[in-house]
Design a protein that fits this description.
By secondary structure, this protein is mostly helical. The protein contains ten helices and five strands, in the order H-H-H-H-E-E-H-H-H-E-H-H-E-E-H.
């Protein structure tokens, strides 16, 4: 089995935050705003905005710039984070087309916000599996797997057909991008 890319699940974990998604969306839609302007748009404190923007930067999704006395974050992916560029493009496509709000993105990200769930989705991307097969493939106990499968079902990644679990067809641009990054 391919080794996990911890950056992907950690990035997904960062994308589950609605404030972070709101900030990221504003940076993508209006690059060049400083931290205090972004905080004002989201009606949050400057220190909260700064902290959340740094989290997005640490996942490679934003680049920090300091023109003059203000701090600006730009939608420039870190080339050392392989998932950042494709994910930013998918987010931009989603928000440009007004296809869905941040809630759908947060839900999809929640599904892959754990390395074990990434392993389950990776296994199911190869072929449908029973719970017993999945437990062997991802090396976890049945109770732990059951909890992860419940979350994957609730977040739209997996369905159960008969005794097998199947990966749902990807229809959302962010879901398509995340599957390609597995």
């Amino acid at each position: 089995m391919k080794q996990l890319n911890p950056t992907l699940w950690r990035t997904c974990r960062a994308l589950t935050g609605r404030t972070r998604l709101g900030l990221l969306r504003h940076v993508l839609e209006q690059p060049g705003l400083n931290v205090s302007q972004l905080a004002k748009h989201l009606e949050i404190g400057i220190s909260d905005a700064s902290q959340e923007l740094r989290r997005l930067q640490s996942r490679g999704l934003l680049k920090r710039s300091c023109p003059g006395a203000s701090v600006v974050y730009l939608p420039i992916p870190d080339p050392q984070v392989p998932s950042a560029g494709p994910l930013l493009k998918a987010l931009q496509a989603t928000w440009d087309g007004n296809r869905s709000g941040n809630e759908v993105i947060a839900l999809l990200a929640k599904g892959l916000a754990c390395e074990r769930r990434v392993s389950v989705v990776r296994a199911l991307s190869q072929h449908p599996c029973s719970a017993a097969q999945l437990a062997d493939l991802v090396r976890t106990g049945p109770d732990n797997l059951k909890a992860h499968l419940r979350i994957l079902r609730e977040t739209g990644w997996v369905v159960k057909t008969g005794k097998a679990f199947v990966l749902r067809p990807a229809t959302h641009p962010v879901q398509v991008a995340l599957l390609k990054l597995l």
